[in-house]
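Deviation from plan, reported transparently: S-adenosylmethionine complex.
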Amino acid sequence: MSGLLGLGRRSVLPELLDQGVTDEEARRSLGDLRFANRWLGGRRGLLAAVRPHLAPGGRLLDVGCGSADLAAFLRRRLGGGVFAVGVDVKLRHAREAAADVRVVVADVRALPFPDRAFDVVTASHFLHHFDASELTSVLRGLARVARRAVVVTDLRRAAVPLLFGHAFFPLLFASPVSVADGLVSIRRSFRPPELRAAFADAGLPDVRVRSLFPYRLVAAATLQAVAPLGEGGGR
Ligand SMILES: C[S@@+](CC[C@H](N)C(=O)[O-])C[C@H]1O[C@@H](n2cnc3c(N)ncnc32)[C@H](O)[C@@H]1O
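Because the crystal trials were delayed, the predicted structure below was used instead.
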């Protein structure tokens, strides 16, 4: 089935939101992303993967944050005054950001932070925006500014979500950009061995990749230099 649907390899089709759409269309599409994050799963798995690495008062960076709803969700759920920063390459997206997250406009290829500036660096529905040749440098960029862990969530490439998307995205999403990009995102997304290999190629072999319901992947790479929380490796 996967082969018939062209899912054997990651697609290189571009996404409309990356290419440039009107301000109004971008605003609606970001609203659809917030809806999907809230109702189509993934947030809890992200929280569970981040929690072991972030102590109270810790520092969190979310790269490719969109309107920063996931960073705001993590901050709220983790409590303890977590300091949350989002990065997005688009000023228009940063302008939509949740109030309790500081947002910086920057490209992942040139993050304006010192090495190991954040305890945990997250990136959600972001890695699939990059072709295979770019994955290593993007993951290295995330790891450079992380002290304890890099946590990536993304979609799992499979026939079921693609068929679901064709049937239901037009009903669920307000923007036709979200419908088109949602389907392309599934085609650009990963299978677990591909994600594991990308982390290993970036020098992050200590990664745990989990498949979560519904058709999500969470990859958590522990950085070696710092002992785990609760084992004498406090801040
Ligand atoms: C699909 S959205 C995901 C937004 C959010 N993380 C979420 O899960 O809802 C991908 C985001 O990555 C941003 N982005 C794309 N390329 C980027 C880059 N090179 N550096 C930083 N952000 C980038 C886009 O502007 C967009 O807001």
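Residues 50-156+191-222 form a domain with the Rossmann fold fold (CATH 3.40.50.150). We consider this an acceptable substitute for the interim report.
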